[in-house]
Amino acid sequence: MSSSSPPVGAASAAISASEKVDGFTRKSVRKAQRQKRSQGSSQFRSQGSQAELHPLPQLKDATSNEQQELFCQKLQQCCILFDFMDSVSDLKSKEIKRATLNELVEYVSTNRGVIVESAYSDIVKMISANIFRTLPPSDNPDFDPEEDEPTLEASWPHIQLVYEFFLRFLESPDFQPSIAKRYIDQKFVQQLLELFDSEDPRERDFLKTVLHRIYGKFLGLRAFIRKQINNIFLRFIYETEHFNGVAELLEILGSIINGFALPLKAEHKQFLMKVLIPMHTAKGLALFHAQLAYCVVQFLEKDTTLTEPVIRGLLKFWPKTCSQKEVMFLGEIEEILDVIEPTQFKKIEEPLFKQISKCVSSSHFQVAERALYFWNNEYILSLIEENIDKILPIMFGSLYKISKEHWNPTIVALVYNVLKTLMEMNGKLFDDLTGSYKAERQREKKKELEREELWKKLEELKLKKALEKQNSAYNMHSILSNTSDE
Amino acid sequence: MAGAAGPGTGPGAAGGDGDDSLYPIAVLIDELRNEDVQLRLNSIKKLSTIALALGVERTRTELLPFLTDTIYDEDEVLLALAEQLGNFTGLVGGPDFAHCLLPPLESLATVEETVVRDKAVESLRQISQEHTPIALEAHFVPLVKRLASGDWFTSRTSACGLFSVCYPRASNAVKAEIRQHFRSLCSDDTPMVRRAAASKLGEFAKVLELDSVKSEIVPLFTNLASDEQDSVRLLAVEACVSIAQLLSQEDLEALVMPTLRQAAEDKSWRVRYMVADKFSELQKAVGPKITLNDLIPAFQNLLKDCEAEVRAAAAHKVKELCENLPPEGRETIIMNQILPFIKELVSDTNQHVKSALASVIMGLSTILGKENTIEHLLPLFLAQLKDECPEVRLNIISNLDCVNEVIGIRQLSQSLLPAIVELAEDAKWRVRLAIIEYMPLLAGQLGVQFFDEKLNSLCMAWLVDHVYAIREAATNNLMKLVKKFGTEWAQNTIVPKVLVMASDPNYLHRMTTLFCINALSEACGQEITTKQMLPIVLKMAGDQVANVRFNVAKSLQKIGPILDTDALQEEVKPVLQKLGQDEDVDVKYFAQEALSVLALA
């Protein structure tokens, strides 16, 4: 599908000569040019110029009879959008809308009984008109959220107030989900979820709270919301590798998972194994790893029998070249080990410690160091001690080797401590392993040779067959030519 | 060996003795269980060797079931497996047994990882062609149906790619079923599946009967093109190209155009981008009449779209669009309906838009002819040559040959020069590199006199650039110029300047002299090389910097073949011998290498 989706970001659209232009400008230089960038919505810019707004009377000055009517008029007035990319146009109208929005926020949060049934339609219409928009293309296709400044939403002065109004509306004691569900439906939620791709972190923060409230109040939408998040994540993992709001959605999921009833439904387990675990493969894992690990641990705290598949899943996706991600994986493993049950530990100790043994001997000292820190964790130590007969043989080879070979003195020092701890746990086994270390290495070498030998034989067999085939063809040929000679 | 009966193995295949025939599968099983992924990967990559050793029957009865059962591995291993199986038909006994390969591929087509899945589908498509029509209905079609009704989205996505390969050879009843399955995937709950279906819609339409295209594909197309997700809608645009090719003009107008018009004005820029990106294909598919009535107005809108992304994609298509217009009336259409919009784009706010336009705009001159080019296009070229963005200027310069054919480059030379000079001194070395690469072309078109007056000094200045890549390119550039202007020109203008640098205080510049000699000697010929270059090279053998000395050795090796025997024996050999005794190991190494290559040792 890659060939068919348009590239994200302006640069990719016109490459021919830009390829030749220096790709190595320092990030700091680029950053300086990019700071304080802002974007308007893609949808808006296609519209023509706006009608001018005229201030309406204040709500607090109106009689209670007129108030409701005025409230709706103000909501309608706020449906009109302004172009914030053009900072000089419609200044007066923009200010009127800002003041009106402020007034609306105040009105719904300080007064009781103002959210009447007839107002819901106008309220949701106003919110939709303002926040639902096609997000513009990213200015910077290689946006690095750790390094670059995000592009901010130009119309924030208005949108912020709309979000604030939306929240006060949802949180109002007068708010009735049974009425609101006519307007806040699946389509509404779908559009809301798409906004999580916004580059503006302030907007995503508001969206997070909004979605959380909606999930809490609209029971009928819960399954739908989970499914849509599921789809967003799958697209993120397998199709685009790009979605700005992953961390925020995971944060909401963290608390959703917390509330799952036991026993866990198959749907939820599938989400864990088929979505959350593969998510660890994403390029930008660093941006949401904390939230992701939290979700995973939440699942394990709910149902300990998931420990084995989860750890096996993580081992399957263990980073091969990215040390930074490896450190994150080790962190997550430690979080899991912190809550693991001893019976579950026994099930995965072998594959897990084989991986840890590889990490310990990583030439990247941060990876080695992170893995060795496991031995500072009292609970993990107790698990290791309980299973020392299994774990020591797995770990011994690497530890012994690094203690002699690692380039980094800190790692060597840490390894000595770990070896000492392990020796204290089972001195006899330790001595045996030390004694057989050399023999073990030699056996490995021999096995290696045997393997090569086997493949060679197999190759010969293949050649022999090919030759036979050729010969038989040749024989046929000579038989034929013989016949014709006769 | 039991497989001897299979076709293609030949009578000799039974020759393997008992022990030999047993171990391959044992090796494989052992290797597939190895802890090291790399070893597992190696053994999978040699799967064909194992199959060949096993013979066709045991491959079918032992190897394939084993592989089907052990699909649990790392994606990398699975990818290799999926790829191998696509070429396995011969190894299982030919087309009659091709269906044996389906079970493992079916499992691979359901895994999560897209790369593996896509490869499995590719292999399945390959194998489908090797099935007999009966085997296709007995084995392949049921597999497609199973995938199409799988629980998890991955199997349904994979199914989308398999419909078009089995449809043409299926019976009518089965065809109806296949269409039914495809229909339901087009309205699947999961957007991933709808995207997969949309991306295969065009391909599927091509193998359908025209009636079914009209009655079934068109409604599916219309639905997908108005999907709630823009990622689905944009794929429908792609399908539109294939569908449009199948329909008559009236059907097109009635069935497809309303949707296409809507796509060109979609609220999502991604969809509009797709329309712009596929514009030439769409234009060809709908034919000249609809192009004039519908596409040109749509194109005008895309050229002034609110998103730069869309404008740039449309700008890229300007030349192709104009080229593909019917010759009759083309000029008028371009002048009245396209050019006004292009003029606007020349001063667009976005550099990518301007640079996209600059990369194609020169192509319009051949279409519009000399007079129009001078009157209407030339001012645009000149404006773009003065653009603040170097890419825009570069794109114009890199396409100068198009204009040269029509009006000659002289028209431009007054504006060209400042643009070239500025690019030649651009702060970004990649810009400088790009302009160097156009020098030989410019030199050819502007002529030797203009070149000597205006550009020669630039070419010499690049030789002392502080970036190596520029110095290197400048050296090659000189060689190309000599080929163009001849040895006499070289001797008068280039060689003296290059040789002066041999006594430059900066050793990098001294080395540049050597590099230039390496590049120029062949083009300049024996006389200039022997008389002018060789003495300088030999003199540099005494340089105090070792890098210069070993480059002397390399240069001598390079120019040696051009020199006559006397010069080699009397001048080159003693110097190389001396360098062969140098205190620096590298100098020694290269001197000895040169001696042996030149057969002087």
TrEMBL record, chain A:
Instruction: Output compositional bias ranges, type Basic residues.
Output: 27-37
Superkingdom of this protein's organism: Eukaryota
Question: What GO cellular component term, any one, is given?
Answer: protein phosphatase type 2A complex
Any stretches that span the bilayer, and where are they?
A: none
Q: What is an example of a GO molecular function annotated in this UniProt entry?
A: protein phosphatase activator activity
Biased region (Low complexity) positions are 1-18, 38-51
The task this protein performs is described as: The B regulatory subunit might modulate substrate selectivity and catalytic activity, and also might direct the localization of the catalytic enzyme to a particular subcellular compartment.
What is the recorded name of this protein? Serine/threonine-protein phosphatase 2A 56 kDa regulatory subunit
Q: Which organism is it from?
A: Callorhinus ursinus (Northern fur seal)
Q: Which gene encodes it?
A: PPP2R5A
From TrEMBL, chain B:
Q: Which family does it belong to?
A: Belongs to the phosphatase 2A regulatory subunit A family.
- One Gene Ontology cellular component annotation held by this UniProt entry: cytosol
Where is the Phosphatase PP2A regulatory subunit A/Splicing factor 3B subunit 1-like HEAT repeat domain positioned along the sequence?
288-369
Q: Does the keyword Repeat apply?
A: yes
Annotated signal sequence range: none
> What highest taxon heads this organism's lineage?
Eukaryota
Which keywords does UniProt give here? Repeat
Positions of the Phosphatase 2A Regulatory Subunit A helical domain: 98-282
Q: Which residue ranges contain the repeat HEAT? A: 24-62, 101-139, 178-216, 217-255, 256-294, 295-332, 338-376, 377-415, 416-454, 494-532, 533-571, 572-601
Pfam families linked: HEAT, HEAT_2, PPP2R1A-like_HEAT, VPS15-like_hel
Q: Which GO terms describe its molecular function?
A: protein phosphatase regulator activity
Task: Kindly give the InterPro entries that the UniProt entry links to this protein.
Answer: 2AA_helical, ARM-like, ARM-type_fold, HEAT, HEAT_type_2, PP2A/SF3B1-like_HEAT, PP2A_Regulatory_Subunit_A
Kindly indicate whether the keyword RNA-binding belongs to this entry. no
Write the protein's name.
Answer: Serine/threonine-protein phosphatase 2A 65 kDa regulatory subunit A beta isoform isoform X4
